[in-house]
Design a protein that fits this description.
11 strands; four-stranded antiparallel beta sheet; 0% helix; mainly beta; seven-stranded mixed beta sheet; 116 residues; single chain
Length: 116
């Protein structure tokens, strides 16, 4: 059974950087597409960044040029480097893995709060 555990969130000021980590267990991530999503209070969960197992990436327009998704297959970990954080980036960030056959795995989420 796949398990995803996020870490790295916190309370920060505008303009600083954070790096989120997502460690997977129960499978080897190098065969799967993975991504980061976020959900702010009162909003739907939205895609932030995704990365396929072949290295193709996709970013939400709101984070392009500021966020970078990467993965370390040897550590079974995917990262989200977030630079120049803004108050509108405040949300719970979730790690996602596309398992195929319409199935996805999700982590429990990590809170990111950016104060102005």
């Amino acid at each position: 059974q796949v398990q995803l555990v996020e870490s790295g969130g916190g309370l920060v000021q505008t303009g600083v950087s954070l790096r989120l980590s997502c460690v997977a267990s129960g499978l080897t991530i190098r065969f799967y597409a993975m991504g980061w999503y976020r959900q702010a209070p009162g909003n739907q969960r939205e895609m932030v960044a995704t990365r396929t197992n072949s290295g193709s990436t996709n970013y939400a327009d709101s984070v392009k040029g500021r966020f970078t998704i990467s993965r370390d297959n040897a550590k079974n970990t995917v990262y989200l480097q977030m630079n120049s954080l803004k108050p509108e980036d405040t949300a719970v960030y979730y790690c996602n893995i596309v398992l195929g056959w319409g199935k996805n795995g999700w982590g429990q989420g990590t809170q990111v709060t950016v104060s102005s």
